[in-house]
Design brief:
By secondary structure, the protein is an all-beta fold. The chain contains no helices and eleven strands. A hairpin with a 4-residue loop joins β9 and β10. The chain starts with 9 loop residues before the first strand and ends in a 21-residue tail after the last strand. The model has no long low-confidence stretch (mean pLDDT about 85).
């Protein structure tokens, strides 16, 4: 359009909410202008449908609704436990369920090391 929109002309509004986020930067290529929105405090509170709007003195336009989904890494609620201990082995139950966050757990790394006092942790 004429005039071409600038960073301050772009906004992102959550459906059913009065909170509006403004573009942190814009850039263009030969066919389009892009806006970038940054969220500093990301949590599932920002999940939901949004509309991107641009408004200049020439007029305004809104996008089709987009959905922002925030995913939290899964974290087990229980620590690993030893289910069997022998002279030279330990069977570990990783207790991957229940977990909080978006899951399931797909990989667990267990680190077993000797402490400076000779004990194992």
């Amino acid at each position: 359009g004429d005039p071409e929109p600038t960073r301050g002309d772009f906004s992102l509004t959550k459906s059913g909410d009065s909170v509006t986020h403004h573009a942190s930067s814009t850039f263009r290529n030969t066919t389009a202008i892009f806006s970038i929105f940054q969220f500093t405090a990301v949590s599932n509170v920002i999940d939901g449908p949004y509309t991107c709007n641009v408004q200049t003195i020439a007029g305004d336009a809104g996008s089709q609704p987009i959905t922002i989904a925030v995913k939290d890494p899964p974290v087990p609620q229980n620590h690993p436990t030893s289910s069997d201990v022998g002279l030279d082995y330990v069977v570990v139950d990783i207790n991957s369920r229940p977990f909080i966050g978006d899951g399931p757990l797909v990989k667990v790394t267990l680190r077993f090391q000797q402490l400076p006092d000779g004990q194992w942790q």
